[in-house]
Amino acid sequence: MTVAPPVIEKLRDIVGEQRVLTDDSAFQQYGVDRTTIWQPAPGVVVLPETTEQVQEVVQLANAEKLAVVPSGGRTGLSGGAVALNGEIVIALDRMNKVIDFNAVDRSVTVQAGMITQQLQEFAEQQGLFYPVDFASTGSSQIGGNIATNAGGIKVIRYGMTRDWVLGLKVVDGSGNILELNHGLVKNNTGLDFRHLFIGSEGTLGIITEATLGLAKPPKELSVLVLGVSDIPSIIDVLKVFNDGMDLTAFEFFTHNGMERVVDHSEVPTPFESEAPCYALLEFEQTSEAELDRAMELFETCVMEGWVLDGVISQSLTQAENLWKLREDMSETLSQWKPYKNDISVNVSRMPEFIARAEALVSEQYPDFEVVWYGHIGDGNLHLNILKPDELSIDDFTVRCSGVSKQIGALVEEFHGSVSAEHGVGLLKKDLLSYSRSAAEVALMQQVKKVFDPNGIMNPGKVVDAI
Q1: 405-414 as b/e: b if 16+ CB within 10 A
Q2: Which ranges of the sequence are coiled-coil (predicted)?
Q3: Under a CB-based contact definition with an 8 Å cutoff, are residues 394 and 380 in contact?
Q4: Kind and range of the H or E element at 282?
Q5: Bridging pattern class, strands 307-312 and 339-344
Q6: Closest by alpha carbon to 342, among 149, 144, 117?
Q7: What residues contact residue 280 under an 8 Å CB cut-off, 6+ apart?
Q8: CA 142, CA 91: separation in Å to the nearest integer?
Q9: Which residue intervals of 170-305 are DSSP H helices?
Q10: What is the rounded distance in angstroms from the CA atom of residue 113 to the CA atom of residue 143?
Q11: Which are the contacts of 252, defined by CB distance < 8 A and separation ≥ 6?
Q12: Phi first, then psi: what are they for 37, rounded to 5°?
């Protein structure tokens, strides 16, 4: 598929001469996300500034029978923003403004290209808090977060992105502008199409604006890192702390992953002794009594043999360094081009699932290094297989993708998800059947047909057009 010169001229008429890019460096920048499997090959990149410009580009794409790939912060890990076949890439980087703020409703309306960290900083300036948080907040965009229903480190307390979306403005696959829910908390007037676009990965249309709820900021946060005797014991620790106090985060990582972070980020190890794995807990220290309660729960876990050692933050700097042990994990491991499995099961079934998954991984990857980490407090595990230097990326991918199907079958047995928070994109499309029935996939295809009748929106991602 190619984009003809007359079409490129029409795109320049819509967004401006300098906002239509056709050089290879632009294709490399805007035509791919953080996956390393595919080489981008878009036909043209456009950078609109308004919803109306997005609409005109989508209408032109329909008229010319050209496919469209939405491009946000390009921090995805499933190939959802990859353009492989001469598509029009619509990059939302210029659509990054605050449109409205309402202190009474505790809501803010922003363009979809706003960086997550900028939204968090804006909320803080208003004395409020946007709680969706993860390692890529400095580069991810709000539209992409919504399109993948991003989760992150605060889900155990605040939920997923979906829980904070009060309204959306979207351009669907036909080029219609839809204004969904208008920021209302209660609106029981039929089907809520807003929730179809959340998590749709750009397959139904392009999110251009979002109205998001904000929360009261948390009080002083304390971070506790615990050395844990084994992965199943982490679930015991989680239960004890969940029963005993309100947590804002509960994360985990294995020792080999932490070692790499310490070397890469030059942060101190949490304590002298080593443990097979670690739990990171965060909670609001509203009083000394809350701190005392955390120490009591810690001592209980030590007496049970689940926890070997621990440290609690004594300053903001120490809290930040403890968080880096977990937050820097993905960036650190990226240099080994890991094959990632982003899976989830109900927390109550975690011990059994982890034991089965550990056995499978040990059997299938005896010569690969495997790093586990994730948001275990909400049932989300990230399984990372590190690529050996001597193995080509193609051979490595083939070997790992085959085992991913076995992991998918295990996830299906536990009624879990093959994509807890990263989306399906291209990478997990063949694994979708392990989490969704044939009837559900068929319904997804029919929904896509309604909103995108010509099948131009992010083709090949999640499900095929019909």
Answers
A1: eebbebbbeb
A2: none
A3: no
A4: strand 277-284
A5: unpaired
A6: 149
A7: 223, 224, 225, 226, 249, 250, 251, 252, 253, 322, 323, 325, 326
A8: 13
A9: 194-197, 231-244, 255-265, 288-303
A10: 6
A11: 228, 231, 234, 277, 278, 279, 280, 372, 373, 374, 376
A12: -85, -35
Q: What domains sit in the chain, N to C, each tagged with a CATH number?
A: 5-94 (3.30.43.10), 98-213 (3.30.465.10), 221-330 (3.30.70.2190), 337-439 (3.30.70.2740)
Q: What is the bridge-based pairing of β-strands 370-374 and 247-254?
A: antiparallel
Tell me the two tokens of residue 28. Answer: 């490399």
State how far Cα 24 lies from the chain centre: 27
Q: How many CA atoms lie within 13 A of 83 on its CB side?
A: 31
Tell which residue, 69, 74, 66, has the closest CA to residue 45: 69
Residue 299's H or E segment, with its range, is: helix 288-303
3 state SS of 297: helix
- Residues, the chain, total? 466
Type of residue numbered 296: E
Q: What is the CA radius of gyration of the chain?
A: 23
d(CA 401, CA 410) in angstroms, rounded, equals: 14
Two tokens, residue 262: 């310490």
H/E segment holding residue 221: strand 221-228
> How many C-beta atoms lie closer than 10 Å to residue 92's C-beta?
25
In the structure encoding, which two tokens stand for residue 432, read together? 């979708």
Residue 101 vs residues 105, 130, 177, 210: alpha-carbon distances, Å: 9, 13, 22, 12
Residues of the chain with pLDDT under 50: none
Helix pair angle (316-327, 255-265), 10° resolution: 120
- Identify the CA nearest to 308 among candidates 251, 237, 226: 226
Give residue 177's pLDDT. 98
Does residue 23 come out as left (phi exceeding 0), alpha (psi in the -120 to 50 range) or beta? beta
| Contact between residue 431 and residue 343 where contact means Cβ atoms under 8 Å apart | no
DSSP state of 267: P
Rounded CA-CA distance 101/123 in Å is 9
Given a contact cutoff of 8 angstroms between Cβ atoms, the answer to whether 318 and 269 are in contact is: no
Give the β-pairing of 205-213 and 277-284: unpaired
Output the pLDDT for position 287: 86
Token representation of residue 297: 């729960």
Structure tokens at 209: 């604006």
Query: Which of 360, 358, 328 lies closest to 251 in space, CA to CA?
Result: 328
- On the 0-12 / 13-18 / 19+ scale of CB atoms within 10 A, 390 is exposed
Residue reference for tokens 């702390």? 241
Place of tokens 């923003």: 81
3-class DSSP state for residue 31?
A: coil
